[in-house]
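Quick question about two entries, pasted in order.
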Amino acid sequence: MKILRDDNVFRLSDGRRIGYAEYGDPDGLPVFLFHGNPGSRLSWGLIPGSPFLPNIHIIAPDRPGYGLTDFNPYALENWPTDIAELADYLGIDKFSVFGPSGGGRFTLACAWKIPDRLFAVGVFGSVGPNVPEATKGVIRSVRLLWKISNSLFWLIKLQMKIIASMAKKNPEKLSIQLRDVELSEWDKKIFDRSEIKNIFIKDFPEAYRQDGIGSAYDTKIPGRWPIPLEQIKIKVHVWHAEPDVLVGNMPKYIAQKLPNCEIKIIPNSGHLWILDHMKDMLETLMPKKKRLIK
């Protein structure tokens, strides 16, 4: 996958900045990819071999509070408008959107607010609302973050600031700590491959460039979930790896609430399954006439 440019900065009409990278074919089908938590616009170019489709134009923005994109307290609600404005600037009328993990709810926000701009929508291992039927299977440490994030947001910001300091000074040490605390046995097998571990080591400093405010904000969203899933009319493709201990039953819950959804369950896998299967998911999001011929 050719890196067209990875340090673009666009200033939105209200003055906020949004950073983004571009990959692939500039004349290909435009797909906006929204990274997880932690992550940045650089994540996609670090996947080994960048195994994406040859006729695809990837636009990968930093989500608010990550990388080069300014944080704002209404990041999720503003996101669809921001993406539409960026697409207009790039001369793109219609496009597909895809987001894994923490980027999934930003993808769903676009499906809710700007469906007329979209070819297709896909989420993998998406975080959803903090309700018992959705959080079943999530590890305790993550559930605790979601539980206290709104009432004790100052504490979450402090924690993320400490993590950000480590990410900038010793990203390898941080990646190992997160591996041991948060990853399932399925994910550890993928993480322990040197080329996969390298993704996190290289991406962490950029993901935490703004002292972790993006990560802190992400923890608030499940507890104040603003997206009316029942109102999303456009078809949404949902991929869910089982057992995924970082999101538990959330992808299934989202799929049950969406009026028009196709869900694919991947057994005996976890949150990092995406790193070996981006090509398969992206092909699903391409209009039939432009799909890769096998």
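Here is the second entry:
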Amino acid sequence: MEDATIYDVARLAGVSISTVSLAINHPGRVRPATRERVHQAADAVGFVPKEHAVARARRGLGRIAVVAPFSHYPSYYRRLNGVFSELKDTATQVLIYDYADMATLESPLLSALPIRGHVDGLLIMGIPLSEAVADRLGGRLPTVLVDASHPGFPSVTVDYAGAGIEVALHLQSLGHRKVATLMGAAVSIPEGSPGWTRLSTFQDVYGLENVLRVIVDRRSGGGAEAVEAVLRNGPDGPDRPTAVFAEWDLLAVRFLAAARQTGIRVPEDISLVGFDDGDLPEALGLSTVTQPMEETGALGMRLLARALDGDDSPGSVQLTPALALRSTTGPAGGPQA
């Protein structure tokens, strides 16, 4: 519909214009069914707020949005630094949104962003897309995925599946037969997310019967809780895991500290591997998987810039992480007596 207005959206959705305004500008304050009805109506009539439509017609707004689970995974700030490095000589504004609810793929924010029309493009980091959100974004707003992928969207990904396999094969080479995975979850972790993928392929190599899955609340630390779970069959029991693979480094560091307080030696009693890498893991001698965080953010911004310049197929990139072996895995042959 040419020059669609908020009244057209309200009429089609069967709601008031104030409800339309809330569903677009404050989507979390509207009931999901009503919000989806408004968003579908806006899609149908091609509604964009007038001031943003005018600005976009004049060479764009010079503004992008970055959405990531910053409060759940601080590592995404490092990816954001990569975005900033690409934009350092430009006047592009960056709006940052925290994706706080990792328990659901149906994000009110991601549904509303393409309708609001207040950004030229979107970087989504580490968030699997639902089909409904993917359809809405794909039709209305140039979008690049970082640390996630979906058919039809350019993306920058890391080979998490391969990394999980590499860690498992290395621990097997050290003689570890019973192992544990350590995941920090304040909420459910979506299937297909980075942490789920690397721990899943690790588990596939070992076999379900040989892997103890330990889930702790990331907000409370969880180190002592994880050590207790690993030792539940007794410190010398035949089914006790002799190696732990943590979803990310901070969980591994907390496990390391709690193990030492309990008198558990690392790596003599339990080997430990984390994921991400950085100054703290290196200083502590933590064996981990080094992933190119800043590079993923920079490449994502590069692909988005190409899309904003009119490239309909800017492509996708997959990067390979590297296993950094340090003192927490120890020598070949498994835990020492």
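Reply: The first helix runs from residue 6 to 13. The two ends are 75 Å apart (CA to CA). Hope that helps.
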